[in-house]
Amino acid sequence: MARENSRHLGLRVRIAIFVASFGLVLLVAWVKTTFTTSPQNATGVEDDEEYIIRKVSKDPLKSRFTPVLIYRVLGGETGTFAGSGSLFAGSHGIQVITAEHLFGKKLGDQIFAVRKLRPYETDATHGIESILNTGSQIADVGGQSPDIIVLKAGQAKTIRCFSEETLDLRTSPMELHRIDQTIILTSLVSDEKVRVLGTAMSLRDGKGVQYSVLEYASNSGESGTGFVDEDDNLFVLKGSATGDGNLVEKSIQKFFGTTRKMSIAYGSIKIR
After folding, report:
1. pTM above 0.85?
2. What is the pLDDT of residues 31-66, one digit of tens each?
3. Fewest CB atoms within 10 A around its CB: which of 51, 65, 76, 113?
């Protein structure tokens, strides 16, 4: 779910994002605009957007990152919920980091806006102006790239969706590794504490992108959600690593010594 259109607008950037050993320099500008988010759900059944909003912590944030919801804007005003992400401010403005697969190629040209969850906004007030860095620009390992994208927040402009990301731990061959140390992440949305169990790598010709395996049951719509470690390094949720009690799920649970659901995230991402 990722995309890319107005990628370079001739603006130079100064915020450095380091993912593993890869360095990026990025910039952002901010233009305040208000969009109306999804129409109120009248079915009585909690949808993905409502599920996430219900989890939002009312405590002050202790991170430089702000959790956001991402919307596809229809008719220039009304938005349809698309996914989650993290917003941060640097010396040159505001950026959003999320999962690239939210910008799937089949979506074509779209306009996007984001809505802060902490502090809580009733409507989206930031547009997405352009794509700064795609997963392949951040890291390319044997033709594979992480499910991550960095966006410039500003005036909402048309974005050409491009992503063909299809990696799914539930169906793709993965190399799993446990970790010995205790690593605890904090959800930017809910402040929930989440344990890192190990790593998972999708192999192609002996190479692949490494993801962290989290002891966390992710829900539809949570892709792109941010988690931070004790040093405020960011992990971007890709999605669920386990299915509905099938053999693959049970094998992964047995390997990591847990009976809980698991998800995978890309990180840690150090921003300075």
Report:
1. no
2. 334 455 554 554 556 799 999 999 999 999 999 999
3. 76
